[in-house]
Specification:
Blueprint (H helix, E strand, L loop, with lengths): L3 H7 L14 E5 L9 E5 H7 L15 H8 L6 E4 L6 H13 L2 E2 L7 H11 L3 E4 L1 H13 L12 E4 L6 H10 L4 E8 L3 E6 L9 E5 L3 E4 L13 E6 L5 E2 L3 H7 E4 L2 E12 L5 E6 L4 E3 L2 E3 L1 H9 L4 E11 L3 E10 L8 H9 L10 E4 L13 H13 L1
Parallel strand pairs: 3-4, 3-5, 5-6, 6-7, 19-20
Antiparallel strand pairs: 1-2, 2-12, 7-8, 8-9, 9-15, 10-11, 11-14, 13-14, 14-15, 16-17, 18-19
């Protein structure tokens, strides 16, 4: 990291670079959920419209760059944005850029430390905070119930999550402590920008339901044609999409395609679509568990497990099984002070929320759940931990 004052002092007072254009590139690195992080190459114009809402996420996109300056000069809503995950990934990068394009205030910090995050919200009167799922929301709840009880959170009107969902159980706990804040589960990725926001009826019973934008479809990954209502396919988006992955032509060819003269990106999320066009996101295809011929998506099982009062965090993975091909295993971090729980107890809890074949057949208790600095799940670690326990 370079101190801002040092960077400013060493810079040229003139514009020592050629004219910029929408073809200039901007690279966002993925969280590495399914492997090594990949550099997603965006034309800046495409990222501006797909990831930043065209300069006006809540209104009409601008038609020319000068309109941004005109809108800022006209005054705005006086929003203070606070992106809390690492800035190298899309969630924080796009949050910060939206704030800058709005001419609003953006608060940054060096690392995610729950108590300091809450102090920042109170001190800076933060309006809109972004994070990544339960892995970041739970520690804030713990701090608000413990050492930071009484922190003034009255300025906070929006908490948005991208990259992982805030579960129903954890969201309710946060709302009880900060009733003025609206919690939004956004659906999107480093490869697509913003696709939509979860509907109010999303939850363990109906799944993660998203009313997507007009550029998003659920398609057959082989033919790239839209799937029928209720059929499982992969989420795809056209229009303003990236150029590909930096120095990875093979992965670029697997992920991006042309159809009817338009460029599309094929996301890793499996989903269905209903008669009204609402998309139910099932989970990452690469993490899908095939058990006895049935497909189980870890995210759905994790949502059900998190509703148990003694479960603090959990990852679900598939473990090789001679009878079932793979069985569903849950790696669980217990809430502090909770007594050790049994597999039978968790199975009984899950059967009220899940089909029988989705109920975990193995339970592993871990001291903590391994996640990346951005809050993304480490499923390789979970699968290894569960497999070692099964062999033992």
């Amino acid at each position: 990291a370079v101190d801002f004052a040092d960077a400013e002092a060493s810079g040229s007072p003139g514009r020592g670079f050629p004219a910029r254009s929408g073809d200039d590139q901007f690279i966002i690195y993925t969280g590495g959920t399914t492997g090594m992080p990949k550099g997603v190459m965006w034309r800046q114009e495409d990222l501006f419209f797909s990831g930043l809402g065209g300069g006006a996420p809540t209104g009409e996109p601008v038609r020319r760059p000068e309109e941004l300056a005109e809108r800022v000069a006209a005054g705005g809503a006086g929003i203070t944005f606070f992106p809390t995950p690492p800035l190298m990934h899309g969630t924080s990068t796009l949050t910060a850029l939206i704030g800058f394009n709005f001419g609003q205030r953006v608060v940054l910090h060096r690392r995610f430390a729950p108590e300091e995050v809450l102090r920042t919200v109170e001190r800076e009167r933060v309006s809109a905070m972004s994070l990544v799922g339960d892995a970041m929301l739970r520690p804030l709840i713990d701090a608000l119930e413990g050492p930071m009880k009484g922190t003034d959170m009255s300025s906070l009107f929006s908490v948005s999550s991208s990259g992982a969902i805030m579960s129903d159980t954890v969201s309710r706990q946060f709302r009880a402590l900060v009733p003025n804040a609206l919690l939004l589960n956004n659906f999107g990725s480093s490869e697509s920008g913003f696709n939509g926001t979860a509907t109010e009826d999303s939850g363990p019973e109906r799944g993660f339901r998203v009313r997507v934008n007009s550029r998003t479809q659920v398609v057959d990954p082989a033919t790239h044609e839209p799937v029928a209502v209720g059929e499982v396919g992969r989420v795809a988006q056209c229009g303003h999409v990236p150029l590909g992955y930096y120095n990875d032509p093979r992965k670029t060819a697997e992920t991006f395609f042309e159809k009817d003269g338009e460029r599309w990106v094929l996301l890793g999320d499996m989903a269905t679509v209903d008669e009204e066009g609402v998309v139910t996101v099932l989970g990452r295809g690469s993490q899908c568990i095939n058990t006895g011929g049935e497909k189980v998506y870890p995210e759905e099982v994790e949502q059900a497990l998190k509703a148990h009062p003694d479960v603090y965090d959990v990852l679900v993975a598939g473990v090789p099984d001679l009878k079932w091909g793979h069985h569903v295993a849950a790696v669980v971090q217990l809430r502090e002070g909770a007594e050790r729980i049994s597999l039978d107890e968790l199975q009984s809890h899950c059967r009220t929320r899940l089909a029988g074949y989705k109920v975990p057949r193995q339970l592993v208790i871990a001291e903590s759940i391994r996640r990346s600095p951005s809050g993304k799940a480490d499923y390789r670690w979970a699968q290894k931990v569960a497999a070692v326990a099964a062999d033992g």
